[in-house]
Amino acid sequence: MTDSKKQILHTALKLFLRNSYKEVSLRDIVDEVGLTKGAFYHYYASKEQLFEEVVKYFYNNAIITNYNNFPKSSLKEFYEYYLNTLQEPDDFDDVEGDMNFFIFLSEASKRIPTFMEIHLVQRKKELWAWSEIIEIAKRNKEIKSNIPNEDLAIMFLNMSDGVSMNRAINGKEGIAALNDVKRDWDNLYNLLKTRKKPI
User: Fold this and answer.
1) Vertex 156, ends 152 and 159: CA angle to 5°?
2) Which of 20, 122, 133, 135 is most enclosed, with most CB atoms within 10 A?
3) Does the domain spanning 1-62 belong to CATH 3.30.450.40?
4) Distance between CA 192 and CA 175 in Å, rounded?
5) In this structure, are residues 190 and 141 in contact, taking their beta carbons and an 8 Å threshold?
6) DSSP string, 60-74
7) What are the residue ranges of CATH 1.10.357 in the chain?
8) CB 79 within 8 A of CB 186
9) Mind listing the pLDDT tens digit for each residue in 93-125?
10) What is the pTM of this model?
11) What whole-number distance in Å separates Cα of residue 140 and Cα of residue 130?
């Protein structure tokens, strides 16, 4: 990917996260990037095509997609590492308002016919990573549960999604929101944690 194309995607993503699809004009994008419309059309045929590429870029660059460096010995270490990763600064820290994130995804689901495929690819990566660490935690007797690994993984992920939606509605952002996720994940973990038998 050329630097100009990456800059267009990155800038457009920030604009689409700040404002709705309708509010962001092609002029806004080219002005922000510092290109002419002619240069823009060298990369994209339309704002619609750019929006689809932006959504793919978001799923591959703005959210966790690589779980290879996550701890593999403990479920608790895994989710704490996950939360720490979310606290690290990224290129999108200057975008305010978590509710815009949900508007962005809602618009993507309406405008992009392949959105569910794009979303499900990411969800499968998440489910696989969480299911794998849950299996390890069961095998190492860190946790005990008859609930299938993937179902437990879904519980952790849905809990995070729910907290994210709630924080957007209540205006909670940053560390406060992540503390809510940690509290809920800790509570679920404590329900699953293997109890040591008294001597």
Assistant:
1) 130
2) 133
3) no
4) 25
5) no
6) IIIS----TTS-SS-
7) 65-199
8) no
9) 555 545 677 788 889 999 999 999 999 999 999
10) 0.82
11) 15
